[in-house]
């Protein structure tokens, strides 16, 4: 059992190191379809826009006043956390009548051992923003889903925002 866990940990270390060197092209096929990821439960609108962007800022704590912008795919230390904010149409806030849910998916051996892989849908913590602590080594995924409140249709979905923790 121990050798299996060590092998899993070694592969994850390699994935983080390889990601640092080569970026997203090193991710295995199916990376964005992890077994533990929940499928969106909403009926999809006839057209689901992917013109949904996520920005992130790092803070030392959830209530800290100073922050630093973080880019998709940036490699981060396992301290503090990120506030994720969804935008539509290149920088517009989510309009009234729509709500945001976040799919947060952890990968990596530490998250797996601690049964913290997640992959479900989570509400915003403040307005449409979501706070996530940086804890587990791995390449993790944040996605924003936009749901029209009048009929609960999925109308927008962001591309994955990769959070790489060393």
Question: Tags for this entry?
Answer:
single chain; 166 residues
The SSE string, one letter per element, is HEEEEEEHEEEEE
Q: What is the rounded distance between the termini?
A: 24 Å
Strand-pairing-aware structural class: alpha+beta
Largest β-sheet summary: 7 strands, mixed
Assembly state (oligomeric): single chain
Q: Into how many domains do the coordinates divide?
A: 1
Overall radius of gyration: 16 Å
Q: Write down the overall mean pLDDT.
A: 92
- Strand residues, percent: 35-45%
Give the helix tally: 2
Helix share bin? 10-25%
Shape, principal axes of CA atoms: globular
Number of strands: 11
Residue windows where pLDDT falls under 50 for at least 5 positions: 1-10
Give a verbal description of the structure:
It contains 2 helices and 11 strands. It is globular and about 45 Å long. A hairpin with an 8-residue loop joins strand 2 (52-59) and strand 3 (68-70). It has one domain. It has 166 residues and is of the alpha+beta class. The model is unreliable at 1-10 (pLDDT under 50). The strands form 2 sheets. Strands 1, 4, 6, 7, 9, 10 and 11 form a 7-stranded mixed β-sheet that branches. The protein has a 4-stranded antiparallel β-sheet with strand order 3-2-5-8, with no helix packed on it. The two termini are 24 Å apart.
Write a brief caption for the model.
With 166 residues, the chain is an alpha+beta fold. The chain contains two helices and eleven strands, in the order αββββββαβββββ.
